[in-house]
Amino acid sequence: MRPSKRAPDEMRPVSFERGVARYAEGSCLVKFGNTHVLCAATLEDKPPPWLRGQGRGWVTAEYAMLPRATHTRTRRESSSGKPSGRTQEIQRLIGRSLRAVTNLPALGERQIVVDCDVIQADGGTRTASITGAWLALHDCFQWMRSRSIIKDNPLRDHVAAVSCGVCNGEAVIDLDYAEDSTAETDANFVITGAGGLVEVQATAEVAVFSEDNLGSMLTLARGGIDKLVQLQKAALA
C-alpha cells in the first residue's frame, strides 16, 4: 500500500488556476496534491544576445523554491550568489520541454521567460512546473496575438510531465515526498499531447531497475500524461 493509499496508477488531485499573476503576460497556479507552483510567463521584446539577427525567438525558464516551501527553511539561492546545480538542471529541463512544442521562428526575435516558483513542495516540483508552465506560455501567446504582436499561435502541441518510480518492487505514478525519498527507482517523463517523448530521466536510487520496470513506468506515465493534457484542455475551455 502506498503511503497516500492511492492505487499504483492513481495520481494526486491536479488543478490549474490561470491568470493569477496580475502583471504577467500569462500565469498559472498549478497544484499536484500538496505541491503548488506559480508559473508566470514574461515577454521580452528581444532575443538572447547569441540569437540576434537569426529571425527566431526563444523560450526559457527559471525555477526557484521559496524558503518555506519545505519542512525546514531553505536558504534563498540569491543570497549565495548563484543557483544550485539542481536548480540549473530543472530550469533547463523546463525550457527544453516548452521549446519542444513551440515554433520558435513564429515568435520573431523575442524571448519568453517562464518563472516557476515553488510555493509548497511535496515531491514532483519539476513535473508540476512543466505542466503549469505550458498553460502560462499558452496564455502569453494569446496575449501577444490579441495585440497583433504575433499572427499565429506558436504552440504546436501540449506538453506535460509526471514522475514515476519503483517502490517496494512495484511501479507507481506521481510520487509524493514520502515515496520519492524512499523509492528504489525515481523517474520523470516529459511527453507531448501527441505522445512524443521529450525527455526521460530515470535513476536507480537503491537498486538497479530492469527494462520491464522501465516499460511499466512508461505505461503509467503515458496514462498520466493523457489525464494531464485533458485537464489542460479543460482549463482552457
UniProtKB/TrEMBL annotation:
Q: Which UniProt keywords apply?
A: Nucleotidyltransferase, RNA-binding, rRNA processing, Transferase, tRNA processing, tRNA-binding
Residue segments, region Disordered: 69-88
Residues bound to phosphate:
R86, G124, T125, R126
Q: Where is the Exoribonuclease phosphorolytic domain?
A: 10-140, 159-222
Per the record, the domain of life is: Bacteria
Q: Which family does it belong to?
A: Belongs to the RNase PH family.
Subunit-structure text: Homohexameric ring arranged as a trimer of dimers.
NCBIfam families registered for this protein in UniProt: RNasePH
Function field: Phosphorolytic 3'-5' exoribonuclease that plays an important role in tRNA 3'-end maturation. Removes nucleotide residues following the 3'-CCA terminus of tRNAs; can also add nucleotides to the ends of RNA molecules by using nucleoside diphosphates as substrates, but this may not be physiologically important. Probably plays a role in initiation of 16S rRNA degradation (leading to ribosome degradation) during starvation.
Could you identify this protein by its name?
Ribonuclease PH
